[in-house]
Structures are given as structure tokens and as C-alpha cells.
Amino acid sequence: MGGLVLTPLLVPLATAILVLVAGDRAALRRVLSLGGALALLGCTLALLVEVEGAGRVAVALGDWPLPFAIELAADRLGASLALVTAILGVAVVLQQQSSADPAPESPGLHALIHGLLASVGAAFVTADLFNLYVWFELMLVTALGLLAHGGAARHLDACLKYLALQVLGTLLLLLAIALVYGATGQLNLAALAGAGGVPPVAVALLVIAFLIKAGAFPFFAWLPASYHTLPAPVLALFGGLLSKVGVYAVLRTLGDVYAGAPALFYEALGWVAVVTMVAGVLGAAYHWDLRRILAFHVVSQVGYMLLGIALASRAGVAATLFFTLHNILAKAALLLIAGVAFRATGHHDLRRTGGLYAGRPLLAVLFLVSALSLVGVPPLWGFWAKFSLVRELLLEGRYLWGATALAVSALTLYSMAKIWLEAFWKPHPGGRDVGAPVPGLVPAYVGVSALALAVLAVGLAPEALLRLSEAAASSLRISGGSAP
Amino acid sequence: MILALVLTTGLAVAAGVYLTLAPDLFRRLLGLAVLGSAVNLAVLVAGRVGPTAPPILRAGAETLAAGAANPLPQALVLTAVVIGFVLTAFAFVLAVALRERVGTEDSDAIRAAEPPPVDPVKPPLED
After folding, report:
1. Residue A482 included in any domain
2. How many helices and strands, by DSSP H and E, does chain A display?
3. What does the pLDDT read at residue A442?
4. pLDDT score at B54
5. What per-residue confidence (pLDDT) applies to A443?
6. Cβ–Cβ of A140/B87 closer than 8 Å?
7. What is the rounded end-to-end Cα distance, in angstroms, of chain B?
8. Which residue of A130, A216, A239, A294 has the fewest C-beta atoms within 10 A of its own C-beta?
9. Domain ranges, residue A422
10. Whole-angstrom Cα distance, residue A155 to residue B56?
11. Which residues of A touch B101 (CB under 8 A)?
12. Residue in A with minimal Cα distance to B100
């Protein structure tokens, strides 16, 4: 039954090919795309159930003996992230099929979306360092396709900046892999963890490359330069998923494979995380474009995730995983809501929108749930995510880091309050009837409601997921941590 | 042999960084491509350079002969070269299309995605 490990890669890849074959038949394309996303959801759910029983499910491709084979392996960490990826995939495909994005849909769009899902899913389940590099590259290629998709000057400009900075990241990654391979002769992650003699500079280079991918300070310039040019459904995919793959890779490196890295690395990572949080939230406070505000919050929240890894403890890693799972869904929900809000009001700039609370109360409730969860207000999922993280920070004696995390939460609340006051509370400045019915929005509402319900449900009953995160962290190689 | 490869790698990195820092759009992309080649060389150097015998097992043997080359770095570099080629080609097509739309090759002057602010406090009004 190890074949399930391959599904986060194979199901979206097969869907992408089928969608391409469907060509110009739009209805068929949409059915295939949604079917593929739902199939991925079912497969990753089955994978998580299997991993929950077995602890780790692995397949060595090509029947080569390890460590020579390329191994795909899912543990609780990878499988839970793959499941969240699939949930997000369904929500994004649903909104793509609604009328939230009024631009005409090109035949290749769904194929690119599923290609991106395939590379992200494969990155979560690969157990081979070079293979991870390949998935990062595929992620980059499909992301470039989606960025350039609009075809106007601003899309191409954003795409080129994204490309230049991301290519620098992948080059550093490849160089780090060369150094690691040169020192150990291994590429399999488990073999690398067992092999000694890796120069610390190689590990540092590896982490820096992943930090570029995660959008951490000072490497996040590609993110606010490009994200706001994307159409809403794709923006949710980018903002929800892409930077988290970088966080996952940092977690896999410093929390698992090289858990015994020098303490200086974790200390440095912690300060990088602190500055990332502050820089991201201040960037968001400056902006008035809904997409730009939310894009900068992506940067800010990457800081929280890195803080948990910087604690170098099992409980810290568990908190990071719990936080990341929450953030992918809550962030995507907010970005999808921004798409529907744009459809209703005609603008992204907060100075030009308004009237959503009076015109679209359901959207207002969904926004409140997602936004307050992002801030960390009980009884929502985000409260438990921030609570477990800040609790670990304080127990480990990292008072300054913990205080910064709380202060950044207050500034996040400021941003969300700004959106609420401007887009939802005040009347529309153009006098537009925001509540006027828009045909074809139902799928978008279904997707957003599912995400918001998940945020609320886990907030009311966080026990199972907290236990899963702790079990995931305890199966990694990270040890230590003085917290009880 | 290794020394020559290492020196070439260093030279390529220097050239790549120099080109990447140029203001001209196409020079920058060319710089990234050169940097990519330098990293590919580094991967090759990281493997075993020197032995040249083909890494083929004789019938019945379990291990390679002593002087066999290491095939893995070459496979890795081949993968990286293919991806690098795709990205370089795409980047240049993108740059040409962008130049057609904005009418300049000065990458500092291309602000299509991020218009410079006019107000000292507030960002420019978006759509």
C-alpha cells in the first residue's frame, strides 16, 4: 500500500495532462480539474490515515536499494501538509470555476494550477535532497507560467522580478547540494542524517536557499513585488502554499536532517524570524491595496513559523507545524475573499471599496472568521496556533521573541481592522450596489465557507490536530527542549 | 584537472555576479545564466573528477573497477542543465515581451508592477 505516497505527485500530474488533452472543451476541462482536485483530497486523506497507523510510508523508486534509489516517503509532517495542500487545491479550483475572476480563462490555466499542486505535494513527500531541488524548480516553472499568464506589462514585470530572485535561490540550493554531496557522497535525507562530516557552511547555504524560497527577511523582495498582479484564485494558491514549502524545507533541514546543527544557526534563524515578522507587518500597515496587504502578511507569518524552528525543540517544531497548517488555510481563505470582494465592489484599493457588510453579510462573516483567526482571537484555530507557539517561546526563556510575536499580532489586528472598516463597514464611495446579485459566485462561496468552517471547527476542538503535530515532531530527529 | 575546474568556476561566478549587477535587463539575465553554469561546474567538481573508465559492471561483478568514473554528478548536472536552459529561454522571451510593452531595457526604470509613490505618506491609488 506504499503506492499512496506517490499520489500527491501523480494525481495532480495526471489531472494536468488530462486537462491539457481536453483542450478547448471548457466544460470537460472544468469537470476534470475539479475531479482531479477531489481525487487528490481523497488520496492525501487516505495517505494521512495510513501514516497515522504506520508512522512512515516510503517507496524506493526503480527498485534500487537505498540509499541509491530516489525515495519518496511520507511521515506525519509531510502527509499533513500534503492534505492541507489538497484542501487548498479544491478551494482554488472551485473559485477558478466561479465568476470571481472575470477574465477569460485560458486552456492552460488549470494545467498550470495542477502542475503547481503536483510540485508542492511532491516536495512534501520526497526523501531525497536533489529530488527536492527538482520540485522547487518545477514549482518555479509553473509559478512563472501563472504569473506571466495575464500578459500585460505589470504581469511580465512581476514575473521577471520573481524569476530573477527565485533563480538566485535555486542556484544557491544547487550549490549547497553540491557541497553536501561532495562531503558525504549521499543525497538521501535519511542517509545524510546518518553521514557525518558535512561542513557547517553547506548547511548554512542550504538554509539560506530555503529562506529565499520562504520569503524571510532580507530575501522576501520577490513576494510583494509580484503577488499583487495575480488573479484572486491563483493568488490564494501562491500566498497560501508557496512560501510554506520553503518553511517546510527549513524545518526538514534544521528540525530533522541536520537537527544537530550549531546553536548559532538556530539563534540566527530566530533573529531572522523576528525581523521578518516586523518587516512584513509594517509593509502591510503601509499599503491600501487588499492584495498587497495580504501579501505582506504572508511574509510576516513566515516569521512566526521560523520562530518555532529556531527554538530547536520538539515542542517548537510541533508549534510550527500546527501554525503552518492553520496559516495555509486561513491565508488562502482571506485571499479568496479578496477575490469575491473585488467582484462585488470593482476595486482592490481600500480607498475605493466599501459597503460589503451591508451588501454581502455572509462574506463579512467569513472574512471576520478568517481574519480574526489570522490575528489569533479565541476560539478560532489561529488562537491555539499562536498560543502554543508563544507559550513555547516563553517557556524557553525567549521573552523578547515572544513579546515581538504578540506585538506583531496587534499590528496584524490593525491591518485586519483597516480592511474591515474600509472595505466592509463604510459605504461604497462610488455609490455602487455591492449587494447586487452576481451570477456564478456560488462555487467561490462554497470553497471559502469550507476553509472558514475548518478554521472554526479546529478552533473549537484543537486536541486531535495538536496531538498530530506533537506526534509529527516526535518522529523527527530534533531532540532536546527544556519545555515540559 | 580539479584546479582548472575550480578556477573556471570562480571565474564564471565573478563574471556572473558582474553581469547580474548591470542595469541592463538582458545583461542581468545573461549573468544569471552564467551563474547557473558556474554552479553546474561546482556540482561536477563535487563528484569524483579524474577517473575516466566507464562505470559499467562486468558480468557477475558486484562493485565497479577501481578507476571507474562517478556517473551520479553527471546525471545531476544534466538535470540542472535542462532546467537551467528552460528558465534562461523563458526569461529572455519574457524580457523581450516586457521590452515591447514598456519600451526600455533599463531594469531600474521598469516599474510596471510597482508604480513609484507620488504621495510621501500613502501608496499610489490602485485599481
Report:
1. no
2. 20, 2
3. 93
4. 82
5. 93
6. yes
7. 59
8. A130
9. 2-474
10. 50
11. 152-153, 156
12. A153
Domain count, chain A: 1
**Cell of residue A130, nine digits:** 536533489
Chain B residues close to A144, C-beta within 8 Å:
90, 94
Interchain contact, B94 vs A174, CB within 8 Å: no
A189 in a structural domain: yes
| Cα–Cα distance, B38 to A109 (Å, whole number) | 34
What is the pTM (predicted TM-score) of this model? Answer: 0.95
pLDDT at A357 over 60: yes
Decide if pLDDT at A106 tops 70: yes
Closest residue in A to B44 (Cα–Cα): A178
Cell numbers that stand for B70 in this block: 562517478
The three cell numbers of residue A206 are 542550504
- Of A172, A146, A166, A176, the closest CA to residue B87 belongs to A166
Q: At what angle do helices A7-22 and A109-125 cross, to 10 degrees?
A: 170
Residues B96-127: tens digit of each pLDDT: 999 999 999 888 888 888 888 888 888 888 88
Beta strands of A18-85 (E only): which ranges?
A: 56-60, 71-75
Comparing CB atoms, the residue among A182, A226, A292 nearest residue B46 is: A182
* A160 to B43: CB separation less than 8 angstroms, yes or no: no
Buried/exposed B31-48: b ≥16 CB within 10 Å, e otherwise:
bbbbbbbbbbbbbbbbbb
- From A227's Cα to the closest Cα of chain B, the distance in A is 10
Cell representation of residue A209: 536557499
CB nearest B32 (choices: A159, A167, A174): A167
- Mean of pLDDT over chain A: 93
* DSSP three-state, residue A395: helix
Q: Is residue A114 part of a domain?
A: yes
Closest-CA distance, A220 to chain B, in angstroms, reads 15
Closest CA to A289 of A228, A336, A223: A228
Position A162 in a domain: yes
Split at pLDDT 50, 70, 90, the class of A452 is: very high
